[in-house]
Amino acid sequence: MTLSLDDIRAAAGRIAGHVERTPCRYSRTLSEITGAEVWVKFENLQFTAAYKERGALNKLSRLTAEERARGVIAASAGNHAQGLAYHGDRLGVPVTIVMPRGTPHVKVQQTREHGAAVVIDGDGFDAA
């Protein structure tokens, strides 16, 4: 799949106003440690504290009414699960997340709290 600048602009338009526009800041400390110019994007300011919200919201926003009614299912052990659950709940899209056994309890709990049905299955991520 090849993305164009127009694709990126369209996605930015779809998510505008629904996620935080997070700042990038120069990190003197990391720059000194690495010997390179390092900038840090503060995605921890998102509601779920991760950039994964952007892609989840963009995809959910592109679903047809029929697809929204059917809901979505994904395998994730954390940040994507929470972003998808949060925005699915906001948009009225049922979300089911399959997480592998051994996923930290806090990730399972937060995903459920964001409105997703969680299925625990598989010994690893690929099995889930």
By DSSP, the count of extended strands is 5
Radius of gyration: 17 Å
Shape: globular
The major sheet is characterized as: 3 strands, parallel
Give me the side-by-side strand order of the main sheet: 3-4-5
Output mean pLDDT: 95
Structural class computed from helices and strand pairing: alpha/beta
Q: Fraction of residues in helices? A: 40-55%
Distance between the termini: 25 Å
SSE string, helix = H, strand = E? HEHEHHEHEHE
**Poorly predicted sequence stretches spanning 5 or more consecutive residues:** none
Strand content: 5-15%
Number of helices: 6
What does this 3D model show about the protein?
It is a single chain. The longest helix is centred in the middle third of the chain and has 13 residues, at 79-91. The protein has helices at residues 5-15, 28-34, 52-61, 65-70, 79-91, 105-113, and strands at residues 24-26, 39-41, 72-75, 95-99, 117-120. Helix 6 links the parallel strand 4 (95-99) and strand 5 (117-120). Helix 3 packs parallel to helix 5. The chain is built from six helices and five strands; from the N terminus they run H-E-H-E-H-H-E-H-E-H-E. The protein is globular and about 45 Å long. With 128 residues, it is of the alpha/beta class. The strands form two sheets. Strands 3-4-5 form a three-stranded parallel sheet. Strands 1-2 form a two-stranded antiparallel sheet.
